[in-house]
Design goal:
single chain; alpha/beta; Arc Repressor Mutant, subunit A; Rossmann fold; 2 domains; 7-stranded parallel beta sheet; 3-stranded antiparallel beta sheet; 10 helices; 15 strands; repressor; NagB/RpiA_transferase-like
Length: 265
C-alpha cells in the first residue's frame, strides 16, 4: 500500500518545521528556550521537544537544559574550552597524575582537563590507559604508555566516543583509577552531560573504577547546568579542583560524602 497524499503532506510539513527550528536555534544568541521556540512555530512545547530530539540525533543541534543550541555553536565552544582556565586545568592534571601508581590501569573520559592528565600519564611506559576521548587520544599519539581506545559512536561536539559499543567494552573492564570530566558538577545529581548516551557511559565508568576522580576547575562547581542529563557517580567519589575553589562551593560536596582535594597552584 503506497504513501497517501495526506501522509506526504504531513511529512513535508514536519520537514519544513524542523528546518525552520534549526534556523531559529542557529540564529539565536545562545541556548534557545523551548517555550519561545514553540511560540515562534505556533506548535506545542511537546512537539518542539520531539523535534529537538530528532534533530539532535541527526547532529543538527544539541539539546540543553530547557532548550537547544546549534551544533556549530557547540563545536566552537569546545575549541574555546580547550584554552579556558588553562592554568587551572594544568594544576588539576598534575595533581591527578599523582594518584596513579606504577602498573595501574587508568580510565580517561573525554574532556579538556582529562586530556591534560592524559598527556602527563602518557610519559609513563608502565601504565595502561583506556580512553573514549579524542583529545586524550591525540595527547597519547606518541605515548610510551599502553593505550586502549574504546569503540562506539563519535559525538563530535564533545569529542567523545559513546553509545552501545562503548558500554559493551566498559562492561568487561575494571580499572584502578577513573578520571572523568563534566560540563557541570552537582553534589547529589552527579555529572552534567549533553545527552543520555554520554551520561550512561560516564556512570558506568564510575561504577567500574576502583577509585573515581572528577576533574573540574572551580568554575564548574557553581555553574548552572547547561544540559538536561546527569550521570550519578559511585559513593565515595572524589573531585579534584583548583585552589580558587571557595569553601561555599566545596561544602555541599563534602557534606554529600565526596572526597574533595585541591590541586596546589
Amino acid at each position: 500500500m503506497g504513501e497517501t497524499p495526506a501522509l506526504r503532506g504531513e511529512y513535508q510539513h514536519t520537514k519544513r518545521r524542523r528546518e525552520r527550528l534549526v534556523e531559529l536555534v542557529e540564529a539565536g544568541s545562545g541556548s534557545e528556550n523551548v517555550h519561545a521556540l514553540a511560540d515562534e512555530l505556533d506548535v506545542s512545547v511537546s512537539t518542539v521537544r520531539r523535534d529537538l530530539a530528532h534533530l539532535e540525533a541527526d547532529g543538527k543541534l544539541a539539546r540543553t537544559y530547557g532548550g537547544a543550541m546549534g551544533a556549530g555553536r557547540l563545536d566552537r565552544s569546545w575549541q574555546v574550552k580547550s584554552t579556558e582556565h588553562q592554568d587551572r586545568k594544568q594544576e588539576i592534571a598534575r595533581y591527578a597524575a599523582t594518584k596513579v601508581a606504577r602498573g595501574m590501569t587508568v580510565l580517561l573520559d573525554s574532556g579538556t582537563t582529562v586530556a591534560e592528565a592524559a598527556a602527563i600519564l602518557g610519559t609513563r611506559p608502565d601504565t595502561h590507559l583506556v580512553t573514549n576521548g579524542l583529545s586524550s587520544l591525540l595527547a597519547l599519539a606518541d605515548s610510551d604508555a599502553d593505550v586502549t581506545v574504546l569503540g562506539g559512536r563519535l559525538r563530535r561536539p564533545s569529542e567523545s566516543i559513546i553509545g552501545a559499543a562503548t558500554l559493551q567494552m566498559l562492561q568487561h573492564l575494571t580499572v584502578d583509577v577513573g578520571f572523568l570530566g563534566a560540563e557541570a558538577l552537582h553534589p547529589t545529581r552527579g555529572l552534567n552531560c549533553p545527552e543520555m548516551d554520554q551520561a550512561l557511559v560516564k556512570q558506568l565508568m564510575s561504577t567500574n573504577s576502583k577509585r573515581t576522580w572528577v576533574l573540574v576547575d572551580s568554575s564548574k562547581l557553581e555553574r548552572e547546568a547547561p544540559f538536561s542529563y546527569w550521570a550519578p557517580v559511585a559513593a565515595g567519589c572524589g573531585v579534584i579542583t583548583d585552589s580558587r575553589a571557595t569553601d561555599a562551593q566545596l561544602a555541599p560536596f563534602r557534606d554529600g560524602g565526596w572526597i574533595v582535594e585541591i590541586a596546589p597552584a
